[in-house]
Amino acid sequence: QVQLVESGGGLVQPGGSLRLSCAASGFRFSSSAMSWVRQAPGKGLEWVSNINSGGGSTGYADSVKGRFTISRDNAKNSVYLQMDSLKPEDTAVYYCRYGGNYWGQGTQVTVAS
Question: Residues 20-71: pLDDT tens digits?
Fold first, then answer.
């Protein structure tokens, strides 16, 4: 079955960086587009970024463009989100997503001083 396991979240000061990882299994990862979404406290899900199967095409929400970088390693069945210049409004639970219906348990990112 599809399994997605996120890691790498934590508490960071404004302006800091974090790198999220998502380990995938149970489907043909190397042939699949992947995305990151987030949910801030009291808010709905927000799409953050996506990447095509080969890694050559990416997209970003305006709120994170220029600060976040998505990447993948198909040999490791993993997708990553490098987050730089973090802001308090980036505080959320971050999920990696496969297709429209599969995501992991999420990893908490808190940006605060």
Answer: 999 999 999 999 999 999 999 999 999 999 999 999 999 999 999 999 999 9
Hey, what are 16's tokens? 């800091």
C-alpha to C-alpha distance for 86 and 91, rounded to whole angstroms: 9
Cβ neighbours for 66, distance < 8 A, ≥ 6 positions apart: none
> Quick check: 101 pLDDT over 90?
no
5, 23 contact by CB (below 8 A):
yes
**Residue tagged 């348990």 (tokens):** 105
Nearest-angstrom CA–CA distance, 27 and 34: 12
Phi, psi of 108 (to 5 degrees): -80, 130
- Quick one: pLDDT at residue 24? 98
| CA triple 6-102-42, angle to 5 deg | 70
